[in-house]
Amino acid sequence: MANSDAAAGRTVRIHSFESMGTYDGPGLRLVVFVQGCNFRCAYCANPDTLDCAGGRDVAIDEIVRMAVSERPFFGRRGGVTFSGGEPTLQAEALLPLFERLKEEGIHICLDTNGSVMNDAVRRLLALTDIVLLDVKEIDDTRHRDLTGRTNAATLAFADWLEENGREFWLRYVLVPGVTSMREDLCALCERFKGFRMLSRVEILPYHTLGRHKYDHLGMTYRLDGVMENTPEEVEAAAAVFRSCFDCVRVN
Ligand code: SF4
Fold it and tell me: How many domains does the chain have?
């Protein structure tokens, strides 16, 4: 049996799919929301992806078929983005899928919190065209409050990408009064200034679109009362980032 045939029978734990996504990587993309996450971000818009036992098993073959059928819409820049949830938790299972997509010449983005690094993840990264690295907070105390985890692994992940010549975007959710402090934005700029592999900084304004899911799941939403950003606040953050990077976008 050929390698790709063997891979076809394998499965990945998936939450859902989004076709023609425009927010997660360049161009039009098929976004694959992988089930399970090791963070508990207070602002998480997809709390239904957190439970590793949730979702459903989807055959790799089915995902490849879906990607190939949507390939005409990808154009020169689009492709498939793996998001979640945290895709690297299933790195071993995703490897044959990434290999199949590369055989088909499909562009791959990996949206990750950067907390997991092991041999399978390194092999996954070798097959990834652009990593969308979500840095939640540069101040570790605030990062722990926000996510339940230290940011040390994420920062080490970024260093690995830089040292190993893997292109990445830095993504930052701007939460008023939580991650919007100027001192933290400046410290983040200082930490990433000079990274050659960082090709875009994306500011993701805070939104509450996933808020209703918390009640449904019986979970507590910890940011009740936090307002969405004003345009001035987003612009002020963008100005801080632009003072260090020439590739700043507001998503
Ligand atoms: S890392 Fe992403 S999926 Fe996981 S809790 Fe945070 S926002 Fe949600």
Answer: 1
